[in-house]
Amino acid sequence: MQNNFSIYNSLSRRKEPFEPLHPPFAGLYVCGPTVYSDAHLGHARPAVTFDLLYRYLMHLGYNVRYVRNITDVGHLENDSDEGEDKIQKKARLEHLEPMEVVQKYMNTYHRNMDQLNVLPPSIEPRASGHIIEQQEFIKKIIESGLAYEVNGSVYFDVLKYSQDHNYGKLSGRVLEDLQTSSRALEGTDEKRNSFDFALWKKASPEHLMRWPSPWSEGFPGWHLECSAMSIKYLGERFDIHGGGMDLQFPHHECEIAQSTAALGEESVKYWMHNNMITIGGQKMARSLGNFITLDQLFSGIHPLLEQAYSPMTIRFFMLQAHYRSVADFSNEALKAAEKGLRRLMKAVGTLKMLKPSDSSTLDISGLKSKCYEAIDDDLNTPVLLSCLFDGVRYINSVNDGTERLSETDLTILSELFGTFVFGILGLKDEEENMEQGKLTEDLVNLVINMRQDAKARKEWAVSDKIREELAKIGITLKDTKDGVEWEKS
């Protein structure tokens, strides 16, 4: 398959042509959320980034298997091997079962992703559903001599691994620096070295989420789940592993070490990382208490918000910045995104109404190639949007009567906007959708009133016929003492 698409590989620290291992198949694994609270703006960045990648790979003709995991066990406080499991802590505070917490916030996450028009992944595995696979992975690491057991817990031996491999190659961390910074912690836990990480932890008596294993009744380490699940669904060698830049160390660094120890080679060909959302120059994160949830953004209910912002405004805001650059939150930036999105969608609506001329006074031949050059250059959405706004100027000038476009050129422009605005960038015309929704509501209410008139005339067959026909198109009626209620099924 021929294409000019290149991506920045975090491992090599350079742009590389995308050459999948098994074309036309492409395997994509992205670290999903730890579901113990509502999704915030920071969660939206990787979701939108890799949705863009997913859409573009499919546009290029690849058969993409997109795996995005759900972390529902083993992620301890402060991303360490000590402290309380984040989900168990939330369960204790809210007086819920741990899996009740998982389901509650997973439902919210999925709803928010749907609002952002993020396509669902091909597979969405949960860590708690792959305990056996993780235990088998640990056994392979132990057999390689790069893991050790202490009091029912199993740890990865980073120092021994580093004798033959470069631990820190992804994040740029140097083992000697890790050793120096961790000397003060020596002797404070059961690890041989404080920078060793847990593959399996023995559960304390109060720990709720626990499974039997050859070493103890316990639970897997956080880093292990992605190695085990990515390989299960994508094979021992797969194309792209993505996630937020904050996961480079320790999470993704540990994944490389685990997979190399268990399999004898690295699993991932390309590593991709999106940058952070900041607020006042500081990373937006739940742990820092400076986050804004997506529901708060969509409703406008937060002290830092001057108004509500629609899901497509949030998506457009993120697409305005390159995925590897920082996107700084401010009301001014979101208002600018809202204005830009409205201008783009207005042009799309105008384009549908333009009348073709016999000839063109505009040369749009290079616009398509410029759009592809931008997206092929490591998903350069700021440049792509700039090209699309060149198209907006063409549309407005034709609408004003100062320029002309032939029927052929109008068709090319319409297909170009359809492909990039809606297909690849994943934007939606929210105002048009709202208008369509209002029209649907008005039509249904009109038919219901006709049914009520038929009932008043005791034309029961007509009344039943209306109910049946509405049911066929997914409209369910419920007669109540106060009138008729309806819903889409």
How many strands in all?
A: 15
Across the major sheet, the strand order is: 4-3-9-10
Weakly predicted, low-confidence segments: none
What CATH calls the topology of the largest domain is Rossmann fold
Write down the overall mean pLDDT: 92
| Envelope shape | globular
Number of helices: 16
Our estimate of the beta-strand percent is 5-15%
Q: How far do the termini sit from each other?
A: 42 Å
Structural class: alpha/beta
CATH architecture name of the largest domain: 3-Layer(aba) Sandwich
CATH homologous superfamily descriptor of the largest domain: HUPs
* Percent range of helical residues: 40-55%
As a whole number of angstroms, the C-alpha radius of gyration is 27 Å
Main sheet characteristics: 4 strands, parallel
Topology:
Blueprint: E1 6-9, E2 14-17, E3 25-30, H1 41-59, E4 63-68, H2 86-94, H3 98-115, H4 131-143, E5 147-150, E6 153-156, H5 158-161, H6 175-182, E7 197-202, E8 218-220, H7 224-234, E9 238-244, H8 248-263, E10 268-274, E11 277-279, E12 282-283, H9 294-299, H10 311-319, E13 327-329, H11 331-353, H12 367-376, H13 381-400, H14 407-424, H15 430-456, H16 460-472, E14 475-480, E15 483-488
Parallel strand pairs: 3-4, 3-9, 9-10, 11-13
Antiparallel strand pairs: 1-2, 5-6, 6-7, 7-8, 11-12, 14-15
Helix pairs in contact: 2-3, 4-7, 4-8, 7-8, 10-11, 11-13, 12-13, 15-16
